[in-house]
Design goal:
Helix content is 72%, strand content 0%. It is an all-alpha fold. Helix 4 packs across helix 11, helix 8 runs antiparallel to helix 11 and helix 13 runs antiparallel to helix 14.
Length: 267
Amino acid sequence: MFIFSIYFLLPFYWILVSVTKDNGQLNTTFGLWFAYPWHLLDNFHEVFTRNGGIFWRWLGNSFLYSTTAATLATLFAAMAGFAFSKYTFFGRSFLFTLILGTIMIPATALAFPIFLLIQNVGLANTIWAVILPQTVSPFGLYLMRMFWDQSFPNELMEAAKLDGANDATVFWRLGVPLIQGGLVTVFLFTFVAVWNNFFLPLIVLGNNNLFPLPLGLAGWAATQTGSTPPYSAIILGALIGILPLVLSLLFLGRYWQAGLTVGATKG
């Protein structure tokens, strides 16, 4: 465990050390220890003022894309999971298996069809080109069905129907409070996936002002030939970019862990 901990924590430690250096120190000093003088404040100034302070826009775009897509994906997964768990209809098992099978398709194989669809409906180079393709989560559907199966007994639904409750009342007033752990888990999974997604925004966005943070920082690294990319600023920007993910896992991690074990004891 100690060896594995070093393996996973060493890159993070390297980032913490590197954000205190300038470009020259990154290339001339030992990578796993600090150098004097520190340039941390200079790096902060470079990150927040470069290109007119566009870093703030990229950070806001990432929050917008991740929060909106994760919220919609959680809602759709919860509704679909409820339908697959509580309703009996022709082809249910086949359709559920077919949807789960899409998890095996690499994201790169879907990139070009998604781009064509986005382009044909006139949404290319808009925020919806990033949000809409990520509002469907087959794994989220599977997870929500497990939560509905285990956390919301069929007997409770039947009792509510006998008391005159319709499907919407059963879903929102009875079911949702009982599956909050599942909702948070799917939200977290989707939020992290959208935040870290680089390839989809790369192919559907062309406006620099619409870039999410990972794509924007990659643009800084691809500075034109003849000039040195601001590696120190890029490293600091990357560190700032992972802080929201770390904080979300710290505050909501117990729901994540509970979601990972759902279905392990399902008969």
